[in-house]
Design brief:
The protein is mainly beta. The chain has 2 helices and 12 strands; from the N terminus they run ααββββββββββββ. 7% of the residues are buried.
Length: 283
């Protein structure tokens, strides 16, 4: 009987020990950070009409600057009655606007006149000029001119050469320059008995231009071209021009031209003078 009681006590003790061990709390676990959560994506508010008006307008690309300019000259004189005269002068000029490194211009002029049904004037002139570094104190240049005038017995007069220009005065209101050049001259005549002439010449030239106020400008260009070894054989020319702007592109002009050939062909006077009023349109 004692053995049974002793076995029951041992079994009861083992059962109580196992129950107590099963009820012990688990060992503490290290803390764990909660998973990161991305903030909710919010769409930007739609712009209101006021916000749209405040936004700067998109800028259009700047247009490329003009590199060339052209001008048309027109002069017309007419009279009726005791004297019937019609004289038309027209010209066309082109020049390069970007003059930082060089200056290039070309021009052509035509004159035609009638009096009582007879032609009293018919001539054509053209010139081409190229200046290197025109804004420098000393500027080298090359040029060519061609002229046809049957009433002065000139079938063709051409001059081609090169030289250098010196700037004496250059400001926003005007400019004064002088130049010297060596050139080759050819003169062919309409008179069969007059032989052609081919000469080496030298040339001196003076140019002046001056602005008068905001709309007027006066210009003068004078040339002296003698044969290099014969000072008595020379050509002279002086052109004075006054222009006044009517609009930004249209100007009224008044010009005077003096010409002298010391050795003209037979039957031709040494001197000629022309006065002309006209219009110039630039575009």
């Amino acid at each position: 009987m004692n053995r049974v009681i002793r076995a029951l006590v041992v079994a009861t003790a083992i059962l109580v020990a196992r129950t107590a061990h099963a009820q012990d709390p688990p060992p503490p676990q290290p803390p764990q950070n909660p998973p990161a959560q991305n903030p909710p994506v919010q769409n930007p508010p739609a712009p209101t009409p006021r916000d749209t008006a405040a936004l700067p307008a998109p800028q259009a690309p700047e247009p490329e600057p003009d590199r060339w300019a052209a001008a048309v000259d027109l002069g017309f004189n007419a009279s009726t009655g005791n004297t019937r005269l019609m004289l038309l002068t027209t010209g066309f000029r082109v020049r390069h606007l970007e003059t930082e490194s060089f200056r290039l211009d070309w021009g052509v002029t035509f004159r035609y006149g009638e009096s009582r049904g007879a032609v009293v004037a018919r001539s054509a002139q053209t010139s081409l000029n190229f200046d290197l570094t025109p804004k420098s104190l000393w500027t080298p240049f090359v040029f060519a001119t061609f002229e046809h005038d049957p009433f002065r017995r000139l079938d063709l007069r051409s001059n081609t050469g090169s030289g250098v220009t010196h700037s004496l005065y250059r400001e926003a209101d005007g400019e004064i320059t002088v130049s010297a050049a060596a050139l080759y001259s050819h003169e062919g005549f309409t008179v069969p008995t007059q032989p052609s002439k081919n000469d080496a010449r030298w040339s001196v030239q003076a140019k002046v231009n001056r602005k008068i106020g905001s709309s007027m400008k006066i210009e003068n260009a004078s040339f002296y071209k003698p044969v290099w070894d014969e000072g008595g054989d020379y050509n002279m020319q002086s052109v004075t021009k006054l222009s006044s702007k009517i609009t930004e592109r249209l100007a009224m002009t008044l010009s005077h031209e003096y010409l002298k050939d010391s050795t003209p062909p037979d039957g031709v006077k040494r001197e000629d003078q022309r006065v002309q009023a006209g219009l110039t349109f630039e575009f």
